């Protein structure tokens, strides 16, 4: 049986691909770039001479000191041994400015990393990210409403960023080769909460409730979350068919329903499910 590498360590060995990933971030000469999971430095070594400042976050206790040693002569490069999910990104961003992110992500925590990036993007800390992930996850992030892959991750991503699908790599681009294809996405952080007239925390929670069970209609998911039938009936916008599933709806009608539900005094927690 093939042994799975620990910490999602499939290192990029395709030279064209690592240059294409670094190039996708554009001109970073005046930018702070945060690299997630630099590993053996495949992308780090391309960005080190280009970036205004490069901060690479690596969890592996052997790889991090080896990289720190290798880049010790380059004052613009900092290698930090840390779990990216525990890192406080706000401390890495220049005061009053934003940073960019790059990374061939460790696939076992891709969704958690993306959520962390969206939160930081909404807080105005990040501008762009070029990130590689398992193809199936990238397809979900960039899916449009109504297609099979569209779900909570797509809605959350598209509330927070414009998503460009860049290119896909086969397992042979990595060593050891993973069992899956990998896709590179570019995210331009541009939160839509204000434009759609919703508050970020409340709407994020509403999306989770709306997509809670794929086989249920949106109305049934919201009833299960505690909204009463009467409240749903008076708030339901005419643009949304009563039998619709959240997976078929764009963010505009979802925001319209959320605004209608929250503009009335009754809160979901005080509703009786009927
Ligand atoms: C897919 S490899 C990419 C390595 C390198 N950037 C490349 O392209 O060859 C993922 C990297 O993320 C690191 N990693 C895994 N979990 C991490 C975490 N929680 N925080 C930071 N780095 C992590 C792994 O040690 C590994 O170096």
UniProtKB/TrEMBL annotation:
Top enzyme class: transferase
Family, as annotated: Belongs to the class I-like SAM-binding methyltransferase superfamily. rRNA adenine N(6)-methyltransferase family. RsmA subfamily.
A Pfam family annotated for this UniProt entry: RrnaAD
Binding, S-adenosyl-L-methionine: 10, 12, 37, 58, 83, 104
Enzyme Commission code(s) on record: 2.1.1.182
Role according to the record: Specifically dimethylates two adjacent adenosines (A1518 and A1519) in the loop of a conserved hairpin near the 3'-end of 16S rRNA in the 30S particle. May play a critical role in biogenesis of 30S subunits.
Keywords on record: Cytoplasm, Methyltransferase, RNA-binding, rRNA processing, S-adenosyl-L-methionine, Transferase
Protein name: Ribosomal RNA small subunit methyltransferase A
CDD domains tied to this protein: AdoMet_MTases (cd02440)
Cellular localisation: Cytoplasm
Main location: cytoplasm
PROSITE patterns reported for this sequence: RRNA_A_DIMETH (PS01131), SAM_RNA_A_N6_MT (PS51689)
Name of the encoding gene: rsmA
Record-level Gene Ontology MF annotations: 16S rRNA (adenine(1518)-N(6)/adenine(1519)-N(6))-dimethyltransferase activity; RNA binding
SMART domains listed in its UniProt record: rADc
Domain (Ribosomal RNA adenine methylase transferase N-terminal) ranges: 17-191
InterPro entries: KsgA/Erm (IPR001737), rRNA_Ade_diMease-like_C (IPR023165), rRNA_Ade_Mease_Trfase_CS (IPR020596), rRNA_Ade_methylase_Trfase_N (IPR020598), rRNA_adenine_dimethylase (IPR011530), SAM-dependent_MTases_sf (IPR029063)
Reactions catalysed: adenosine(1518)/adenosine(1519) in 16S rRNA + 4 S-adenosyl-L-methionine = N(6)-dimethyladenosine(1518)/N(6)-dimethyladenosine(1519) in 16S rRNA + 4 S-adenosyl-L-homocysteine + 4 H(+)
